[in-house]
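Reading a protein record of the kind used here takes little practice once its layout is understood. The reader may check this reading against the record printed directly beneath this paragraph.
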Amino acid sequence: MLKMSPWQNHRQGSINNTEDLDKIFSEVVRKTLKETLETIMNTERDIFIEKNGGTKNGKYRRTLNTKYGFIEDIRVPRDREGNFKTMVFEPYRRSLDIEDLILALYSNGISTRRISMILDEIFHGRYSKSTISKITDVVKEEIDEWQSRKLKERYFAMYIDALSLNLRRNTVEKEALHIALGIDVEGKKEILESCINLSE
């Protein structure tokens, strides 16, 4: 259950019950998933064109249904020749949900090797080790930038929650991703920090 920080002022306003907090939390998670999916797919297309030739041809939009709600207007890259097809969505309805795998990428202190393993799980072995390595480098750079970013000086509210993720190590296990969510004085919401533990 989401926990409310004791240092809140009147701007907390209508955020006054668990349902409201869950909606806010899901909204921020969907935004994170959308941005990461787009980064992964753009890198996929760049690598495909580098290997096979072709020309970028903008993006089309699609909606994805996840356990955190619908992610709308995901910008899916394409090539002019129509040869590129992202491998992100094809294995989506496997028992290991892609949203769990992507959220796990943002765990504090995650290693490059672990990122590579998660991406390989997302693509379900459809790419070579060298391609996974290139995608890993791009994703790792984005994650490092996110984790080292400067936080705002003041947040009027902070909430902490734990999500139960299905992740594969030696077996498929449930692990708890603890997330700190902040709302700044302008009402903007963001994930401040996250880490994985074996249980909540």
Notes: Helices lie at 18-52, 98-104, 112-123, 129-147. Residues 1-14, 91-96 have pLDDT under 50 and may be disordered. The longest strand covers residues 155-168. Strands lie at 3-4, 56-66, 69-79, 155-168, 172-184, 189-197.
